[in-house]
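Hi R.,

Here's the chain you asked about this morning:
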Amino acid sequence: MTGSTTDVLDSHLTGLASALLPYRTEAARLDRWGDELAGLLAGGGRLLVAGNGGSAAEAQHLAAELVGKLCDDRAPLSAIALCAETSSLTAIGNDYGFDEVFARQVRAHGRSGDILLLLSTSGRSANLVRAARAGRELGMRCWAFTGPTPNPLADACTEVLAVPSPDTQVVQELHLVSAHVLCAYVDAYLPVLFGPAGGYGTGRHLPAATPYAGSAPGRSGPAPEHSGSGQVRPSGVEDELVLRVPGTLDLHRSEEGP
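And the predicted structure, written out as tokens:
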């Protein structure tokens, strides 16, 4: 029994290892994607993300890293996992069919210039292909994490990161790696308004008098606002909201304490 168990482990790890080198070449695009996504989110844009089954769980995971945080604390970023909207999913599926569960949400929440990221191991999910088409009709940039290409989802999106493995489990595992790496690049490329005052951290610094357009075409916004206390805040945030930044969060102090 021990030998067969070891065979299962070794077989899986062998498949994962064999995919890593070609995956690294594919994943090189995550640097640029992170730059574009950081510019979009810092300028008030939004990421919509969706998948089915295990890919739905990974879509929710990715959104949580942006709305919450990956490592260092920062302001929340706008990301919506369409597969987590259970009432919308069941209502749309019941009234319009399962193939429309994501496309209709894209039409509701998507805006020109926003980014739609779709995850599928096969790249053949009809509801994701329809979502991509809906996003492109709205002027969104449509990206995909898929398994090997060609596949219909890759064809429907503007760009794709295709994991070169025939094993669904390996594809999903490297999609999760891709989600973490993408979020890490987003944090690295965020402008100073989402980083600590005084220039610490990895965010880029923008002149206070220069509007921030980021990398997203058609997006622009006011320059970051600096409070008199030295805290850096995004434009439009109420004065009483103080952004948590690396090194300022005391985990041992109650928020309701003095």
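The longest strand covers residues 141-146.

Let me know if you need anything else.
M.
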